[in-house]
């Protein structure tokens, strides 16, 4: 009997990690009906982080909350309460930025006005529950506000020359003259999950690298936001070159100021969901993501899973929405591209579950 661990990331914007795992299992079972499956949907701090914990941790409870979304409109979402443990006797809260202030929540990009207020409001709701530990995932951000929205929701004040609160989002960065942290809520133990090592400012900073994805296109606009983030770093007394501080439009820096510890997202999620133990006696580990490309080898879920599988003596396999020519597939015993199976990227995106079933069958045949 083949023991198969299914640990894909979400295929961003098209299918969740849990649904991807289920589709892969269906496809594999069509070729190998006696196979045993262990589902461990993964995340690296971005979209699907809460879902990954919910699927893997027995007793996890979704806690509904209403927050201000990245465009300011109220949205219904939730954070996740994990059961009490010896290390966290009052439980652990998992909050992800993607489901509260994420870019997928926008109908159109709002580079100047989108912010992280909703993320902070969800964190505040978890604090009201008096949890011992907070795990936050900060991928899929819609804004470049330096985490000011999040900190404001937790009691910080960002003031202009007249002593009034500045505008939300990147628009307000240029006007910040002083910061009042006296009302900032105390932080419990905070682990910050991210797969980004970019600094806050500079050519590899939040504005320069990620700003264009959020609608900051003009060089002058990127420079203005970068300058605003640098000014904010000075007011918050944080090193703008700190690796990871540029994650989520500078929210990484804000969380460090609050007391959070930045950690590699995939590794932290894997530890907290017991992935290594699940893989220990596996024959095959299947992972995947929407686009497996030249950047996927730098701390992303597939490369991390490949290393875990190798250490356990299991065969690592990959299913991805697309596999680009510059991607390193040598890590995997077999791989399957949904784009190739479907005949085009549009067809793969239109029905990812169907083509993930096909991918699961193709990988089983290659086993």
TrEMBL record:
<protein>
    <submittedName>
        <fullName>Glycerate 2-kinase</fullName>
        <ecNumber>2.7.1.165</ecNumber>
    </submittedName>
</protein>
<dbReference type="GO" id="GO:0031388">
    <property type="term" value="P:organic acid phosphorylation"/>
</dbReference>
<keyword id="KW-0808">Transferase</keyword>
<dbReference type="GO" id="GO:0043798">
    <property type="term" value="F:glycerate 2-kinase activity"/>
</dbReference>
<dbReference type="InterPro" id="IPR018193">
    <property type="entry name" value="Glyc_kinase_flavodox-like_fold"/>
</dbReference>
<keyword id="KW-0418">Kinase</keyword>
<dbReference type="InterPro" id="IPR018197">
    <property type="entry name" value="Glycerate_kinase_RE-like"/>
</dbReference>
<dbReference type="GO" id="GO:0008887">
    <property type="term" value="F:glycerate kinase activity"/>
</dbReference>
<comment type="similarity">
    <text>Belongs to the glycerate kinase type-1 family.</text>
</comment>
<dbReference type="InterPro" id="IPR036129">
    <property type="entry name" value="Glycerate_kinase_sf"/>
</dbReference>
<dbReference type="InterPro" id="IPR004381">
    <property type="entry name" value="Glycerate_kinase"/>
</dbReference>
<dbReference type="Pfam" id="PF02595">
    <property type="entry name" value="Gly_kinase"/>
</dbReference>
């Amino acid at each position: 009997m083949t023991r198969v661990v299914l640990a894909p990331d979400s295929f961003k914007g098209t299918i969740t990690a849990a649904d991807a795992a289920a589709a892969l299992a269906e496809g594999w079972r069509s070729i190998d009906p006696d196979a045993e499956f262990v589902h461990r949907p993964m995340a690296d701090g971005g979209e699907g982080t809460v879902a990954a914990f919910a699927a893997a941790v027995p007793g996890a409870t979704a806690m509904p909350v209403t927050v201000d979304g990245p465009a300011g409109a109220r949205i219904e979402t939730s954070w996740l309460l994990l059961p009490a443990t010896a290390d966290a006797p009052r439980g652990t809260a998992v909050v992800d930025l993607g489901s509260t202030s994420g870019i997928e929540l926008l109908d159109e990009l709002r580079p100047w006005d989108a912010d992280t207020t909703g993320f902070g409001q969800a964190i505040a709701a978890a604090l009201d529950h008096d949890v011992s530990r907070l795990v936050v995932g900060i991928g899929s951000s819609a804004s470049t506000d330096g985490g000011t929205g999040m900190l404001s929701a937790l009691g910080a004040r960002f003031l202009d020359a007249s002593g009034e609160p500045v505008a939300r989002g990147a628009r307000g960065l240029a006007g910040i003259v002083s910061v009042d942290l006296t009302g900032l809520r105390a932080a419990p133990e905070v682990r910050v999950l991210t797969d980004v090592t970019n600094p806050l400012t500079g050519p590899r900073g939040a504005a320069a690298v990620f700003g264009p994805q959020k609608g900051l296109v003009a060089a002058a606009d990127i420079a203005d936001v970068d300058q605003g983030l640098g000014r904010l770093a000075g007011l918050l007394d944080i090193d703008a070159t700190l690796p990871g501080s540029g994650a989520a439009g500078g929210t990484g820096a804000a969380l460090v100021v609050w007391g959070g510890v930045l950690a590699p997202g995939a590794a932290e999620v894997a530890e907290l969901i017991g992935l290594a133990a699940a893989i220990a006696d596996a024959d095959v580990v299947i992972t995947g993501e929407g686009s497996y490309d030249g950047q996927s080898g730098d701390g992303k879920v597939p490369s991390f899973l490949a290393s875990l599988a190798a250490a356990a003596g299991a065969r690592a396999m990959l299913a991805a929405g697309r596999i680009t020519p510059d991607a390193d597939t040598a890590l995997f015993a077999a791989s399957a591209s949904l784009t190739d199976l479907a005949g085009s990227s549009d067809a793969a995106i239109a029905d990812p579950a169907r083509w993930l079933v096909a991918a699961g069958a193709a990988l089983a045949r290659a086993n």
